[in-house]
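Exercise 3.2. Students should predict the tertiary structure of the chain below and write it as structure tokens, then compare their answer with the key that follows.

Predict this chain's 3D structure.
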Amino acid sequence: MIEDIKKDAEVNMAKAIEALNNACGQIRAGRPNPSMLDQIEADYFNTRTPLKQLASITITDASTISLNVWDKTAIQAIEKAIVNSNLGLSPVINGMIIHIKIPPLTQDRRNELIKVLKKEGENTKVSLRNVRRNINTSVNNLEKEKKISKDFERDYIIEIQEITDKYIKISEEVIDKKIAEISEV
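Answer key:
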């Protein structure tokens, strides 16, 4: 019973870390990353379609992402979607290939991105603490229902705290790694 509760805590906390990793993947550092384009959807035959379903996305050099478009009719829609995204990218069309040059980050932009990352890290910590609170409530209810003793309740709450601390440390490492990547000139 308590193992199920701990496993549930681990699963929910892992989801919070996964969400943080996804959010960090969206934030561009100085070099190109195909995941930067994951949230962009083009209007392809009146259907919102992710770019990775319309083209193969590759990194061609240290500052360029290339999209090898499969359908000629999708090129204009893809270009429009990239321009309208809030990433500040300017695509260049060359036949069936769209090149996106990633400009270097300015120091002001780096500082903005670091603030965004820290806020994202705090949001993840709040999520982890909410999971901990919910699990602790479940353990407290078990004690109230006399399914476990007061001593076991205390021990389980300590174990849940250790799990929470582990995931908070992971979230801090993810943020620190991304901040180091952004700060790199």
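Discussion points: The domain at 34-101 is CATH 3.30.1360.40 (Gyrase A; domain 2). The chain has four helices and six strands.
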